[in-house]
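Tokens for Acyl carrier protein phosphodiesterase. Go.
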Amino acid sequence: MNFLSHFYFDRNTDNCYFILGTVLPDLLKNADKTIIIHPEKLKHPNPEVNSIIQGWNKHLDVDRYFHSSEFFITHSHQLKKLLLPAIEGSPVKPFFLGHIALELILDNLLLTTKNVTADGFYDHLNGCKQAVVNEFLLAAGLKETAVFFKFYEDFKKSRYLYSYSQTKEIAYALKRICMRVWKDPFTPQNEAMMNDVLITYRTTLLNDFTSIFDEIEIKLMAA
């Protein structure tokens, strides 16, 4: 799941460090895909660092339940098939595209139906002290944290997730993600055709997209 979908499960918490932990695996991956840490079993004397660890573990649980769900398997496959004609000539792997497209549509639906707000998400991130985050990263074994913090500060300043509420921007967001792997993933024609597919598919999900969040909530409570 993407940033706002992870935020949804704990949108009512007042612990900014826990919220940061729920999205930190993806933030680190976006900052530098070579960063690999495994703080899952880490115990720390600072309770704020422990909150990040707990949020990190929640992220792993949510992703595991999501990616093994019938909802994900069905809709990512459908999107892959529908997007195939739109990406003719593109180097992007169709499965990757279907996977990411579904996650972006879910974030868009959460924003446009007012289940979450981008303001609420960014307020939590801005409430976290850099020294605490750095303490977590060092304890988790990341020796050089500067690369992450440069990305993290830019991520917060850009407020890019606000654009996810614009349905017509989903294809552009998808292009930006693909550009981390492929230099020129899509032509303008690819993008226009993708946008048509994504807007139409968003409409098909609108009425029952929350079912996957309900399903994961039940599994989290039972764990």
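The chain has one domain: 3-222.
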